[in-house]
Structures are given as structure tokens and as C-alpha cells.
Amino acid sequence: MLKPTTSYDALCDSFVWDIPERYNIGVDVCDKWAESDPDRTAIIDLTEGLRTDVSFGVLKYLSDYLAHHMQANGIGAGDRVGVFRTQSVWTAAVHIAIWKLGAISVPLFTLFRAEALLSRLNDAGAKAICVDESSLQIITPLLDKLPDIQHVICPETTAFDQDECNFEPHDTFADNPAILIYTSGTTGAPKGALLAHRALLGHLPGVEMSHDFLPQQGDCLWTPADWAWIGGLLDVLMPGLHHGIPVVAARMQKFSAAGCQKIIEDGGVRNIFFPPTALKMLKEEGVRITGLRTVASGGEPLGGALLSWGKEALGLAINEFYGQTECNMVVSSCNALFASQDGCAGRIVPGHDVTVIDENGLPTKHEGDIAVRRGTPVMMLEYWQNPTATREKFRGDWLVMGDRGILENGFIRFVGREDDVITSAGYRIGPSAIENCLLAHEAVAGAAVVGKPDKKRTEIVKAYVKLCDGFAPSHALVTKLQSHVAGTLAAHEYPREVAFVDELPMTVTGKIIRKDLKARACAEVENI
Question: Per residue, what are the HEC states of 99-131?
């Protein structure tokens, strides 16, 4: 935990990592509190409309029954278990049970559909998948294509062995793998970032800094972000449970200011992680929210206008932070210590060595690649079963984040992304999977996907499509292609705009030149 101080320099000087040799996330975020303070509130459940406060004692009870059930079905240390569920008490218990088994949880976004699920679960070699009643309907038709899946577990409808009670957690090392989160890239299948148990401890300084020294008396956390993403799971849910702070579980069918206000009031929320798109939508609605102590945001630069709006509408200064699944929460603002700077993500979080390097892997005062030195506990172990991609992620001792930046007076100024990953509504979306999905449609001969600048979402997915002979451009065909991607891949990845072209720009080796199409998409915005 960070020690609150009055200056950033003093904060850095006083910080020392305390990573025990043996450590288990499940024990830390659940059993620790269940033993010392079992009636303490762990999760405020608003998923059914009415508020239910769930204690750490109950959370341990649920996770222990789940762990016994999974163990009885042959799931053990090192096995991968998919978690395809929305925010709920059971979802938290599922992750905790998996970790107490020494197994590895594989979070899966509830908007994923066939191709996204098949690619991740088959790559992970998942032995089981935990679902809710809604996601069960999605996964059941796919089981014939998931040969490694031996068990589908829906806790809400599972009959547990009532003779089993306390579960003895697996004695894991801090460096043992705990979480496998798939992150989008520009080419090929999504890569699985394998995180160790220590990754939670590695997140804590950045989480605490981005919430002006979390925890404080009365703090209560919530995020509209799905717990399948690292921002929901390791920036909110698990840090909150680690600190014994209540975390609100709530479902929003559609994001709205009224829905947010109700969750904040019903749950007594004081601390929120809002993805940038959520903030933009709140700004558009002209909302004013009171009662919050902190708001943190990350995933894309907010800009001065949005930060100014936050001070007026939320009554506080929004803290921006920076990181990615492979190495998260390494840069953050902390308005309790210093004022934010427009265009900058913040300052380096204590405990991490972050800088900007040149093509030779040497620190530079000029624009270069934002990078993090090996050794920080938040850094991934590797890309799952992908040693080539793991090697390519590093330049000497530095993990290269894939973003360009400048180090200015201790602040990291974000310049732009090095690759073609699209940032839309806080999600990082790889174009390759969408292109492949479009190509599977009978009307499509060729497809290229880029991000088109958008005021609300930062970027939208735009597809340039070459049609097969016998098909003609039409609004009806655009709708069909959009539905094809949304229904096959994921609902947040469908192209919001589709342009039909006679030819796609290609290199002599047959690779799409996305930068030409990106320039075209940007020009379309400039010419409006």
C-alpha cells in the first residue's frame, strides 16, 4: 500500500515492494478477510434491482463450494477455466475458487460470440467454463468445436456437495500463473497475456494513486466496465476486495446517466473507474453527479475539455492512468499530489521503471516508444504458448508498450499508437479478426479494417470492402455485414461504417496497406 504523503517525490522515496514468495490472490481477496472480519461487506449486489450486501464470510462459503466442486471434477493446478459471466457475486466467487485451486482463470467478455470464444478457449486449452444462465445459451451450441472443454459449470443451477465446507487453498508461489487475458493485436489470432498471482499486488500502487490514496474511510468502488476486462477485474474488483472495500456489482443493459446515478445512490458509490467513452456520454447528457470522492479513467487520452467538464459536473479532478493488459497501471495522475497536465497520462507510478526509448532500446529525451523495464510485479509472465510474440514484445530489458510518447518533466505525454489496434469506447480492437470475419461472408472478396476518428468513441471501426462478382453495394448489404460481425465475433467489434471499394491498397507481397486507408478515413472526418 502507498503511504499518503504531501509530495510525489516523497511518495517515490518511501515506496518499497512487498511481494511474498508464496501468495494466492484468492486467499488475499477473500479468505484473509473471512477469517479476520467475516461480516465485513465484500460486494454490494445490485444485479437484481434490490440491494443485497454480501459479506466476505459468504463469499468464502460460495468460493469454497465451487472449489470443491471443480476439484471433484478433476480441475486442478495449472488447468485453464473460462469465466463467461456478467458482473455478479458468483462471478467473483468463480475467479476466487479457480485461484484457490491453483488453476488459471480465463475471463471472457459477455459480448463475445462464436469466433471470439472458439479462438480463445481452444488456444487456452480450457478444461472447463463457468457460465451464467444467459451465456450458457451462447456456449452450448459451440461445445462440439471445443474438444478440451470437459465441464460447463453454472453455479446458480449447480447442486453442491453439502458435506464439503472449508477448502484448503493450493499453496501457490507469487510467480505462479493465475489469469490468462486475451488482448487484441493487428495480425493473427488474439494473444493471451499470462499474468501471475503477483500481478494483483503489482496493480495496487497505480490503483491507489489513481483514486487519491485508496482506501479511505467510506470508500466504495464501482465500474460499468465488464469484469472480463483487466480494467474491471484488476483495476476495480480485486483491488477493492484486497483492501476490504465494498465493490458494487451491477448490470446496465444500456449505459445512461440515469442508470449511473441510480447505481451510485443505491450502492453508496464513492470511487468509480469510468472508461473515457462513458465520460463522454455523460458529458453529452449534461449530467451532474455528486457524492463521489474519486473518478479514475484510462484506455485513451481524455483531453483538456473532458477534464474541465469533470471538475464542473463531477465536482472533482479526474485521474487519468496508463497501461495495458501486459503491463498495467504503470503511469497515473494523482490530483491529491499534483495537477494533471493536458495530453499527459500522468507520472510514473512508484515501483515501476517507465521511460521512452529509441530504436536501440536506449532512453531518449525525444519522441520514442513508451517502455517498462523488466522486474515489475505487474508485468505479464509471457504470451501464452507464443514465445515469438513474447520475444518481440521486448527490446532488451524493456517491455515495449506499442505506444509512442515523450517524457516531459516527469510526465508521460502520449503521442499515438505504434500499431493498428483500434481504440473504440475504451476497447482495444484488433482489425485482423474483423477482416477475417468479413471475408467469411459470401459477398466479400476482400476487406480491410481501420479506426476512424470519432469524437464520442475516440475511434469507430470502419471497414473497406471489395465485393465478389454478382453483389452490388447497398444499405441492406451494409446492415447484413454489420450483423454478421456482431453476431459472429463480438457486438462491440462490428464496423459502424462500411465503404465499398473496387480495390484495396496492397503491397507487392499482398499485404493490406492500412495506413493508406487510415489516412482516407481521417480525411473523411476533416472534410465534414
Answer: HHCCCEEEECCCCECHHHHHHHHHHHCCCEEEE
Residue whose cell numbers read 451465456:
135
Which one-letter amino acid corresponds to residue 173?
F
Write the pLDDT tens digit of every residue in 444-476.
Answer: 988 999 999 999 999 999 999 999 999 999 999
What pLDDT is stored for residue 429 in this prediction? 86
Sign of the C-alpha dihedral computed for residues 312, 314, 316 and 322 taken in this order: negative
Contact 173, 21 (CB under 8 A): yes
Identity of residue 120: R
Backbone angles phi, psi at 137, to 5 degrees: -65, -25
CA-angle at 271, arms to 270 and 274, nearest 5°: 130
Q: Which residues of 468-478 are buried (b: 16+ CB within 10 A; e: fewer)?
A: eeeeeeeeebb
**H or E segment to which residue 271 belongs:** strand 271-273
Per-residue confidence (pLDDT) for residue 189, from 0 to 100 = 64
DSSP 29: I
Q: What is the pLDDT of residues 481-520, one digit of tens each?
A: 999 999 999 989 999 999 999 999 976 445 688 889 999 9
Name residues whose C-beta falls within 8 Å of residue 178's C-beta, 6 or more positions apart in sequence: 25, 99, 104, 105, 172, 195, 196, 197, 199
Which 3 state secondary structure label does DSSP give 411? strand
Give the 3-state secondary structure of residue 341: coil
The 10 Å CB-count burial string (b at 16+, else e) for 423-462 is: bbbbbbbbbbbbbbbbeebebbebbbbbbbebeebbbbbb
Q: What is the pTM of this model?
A: 0.88
- The pLDDT value given to residue 200: 98
